[in-house]
Amino acid sequence: MAQLSVVRHNETLLQELEPGDLIEFPREYYSHWAVYIGDKKVVHLAGDENDGINGQIDADKLMTISGQRFGKALVKVENFWNVVDGSRARKNNNKDGKHPPLSKQEIVENALSKIGRIGYNVLFDNCEHFAKWCRYGLNKSDQVDTFLTFAAVGTAIATTAGILYGLSRSGAKEKKKDEL
């Protein structure tokens, strides 16, 4: 029954979409992104081997080496239903208030201009970067920004804890020396 409600939700969404809208497909650990071009078709950046589109992440394909881009991803046109894969998709033009979108025609032209093989980097050139570039002319990924913020905060906390621990240990040694 839950699956039926997701299908109904996606059918309603598909009727409301206009060319140039961005679609977010939430997966288990991340969201996949695409640009709607009309006629139930989307343009999106996905790996050669359906890498990650269905929520199945192959850890060997997540990162490139030292930021070096490899030609392992493909911008392609696909039917919405082939990409949705059970996700409760949503229109996500959330940057429209901050960044004026290009015209619908320009967005669709941007998306179609990249059809074919291009490089991929999960941190600098992923499906969200691609979709937002098509709509806003910005190479941006909120998912990556959030991840990097949490990683930086985690690193800062761990570093501070390590320093405090080291200081407390050296203070205890000094105290022990003074007692002798």
UniProtKB/TrEMBL annotation:
Keyword set includes Disulfide bond: no
Domain LRAT: 22-143
GO biological process: N-acylphosphatidylethanolamine metabolic process
Protein name: LRAT domain-containing protein
Upper lineage: Eukaryota, Metazoa, Spiralia, Lophotrochozoa, Mollusca
Organism of provenance: Littorina saxatilis
Any GO MF annotation of the entry: phospholipase A2 activity
Keywords: Hydrolase, Lipid metabolism, Membrane, Transferase, Transmembrane, Transmembrane helix
Family as reported in the entry's similarity comment: Belongs to the H-rev107 family.
Membrane-spanning parts: 147-167
Pfam family membership, one: LRAT
Any one GO cellular component localisation term in the record: cytoplasm
InterPro entries: H-rev107_PLA/AT, LRAT_dom
Record PANTHER family: HRAS-LIKE SUPPRESSOR - RELATED, LRAT DOMAIN-CONTAINING PROTEIN
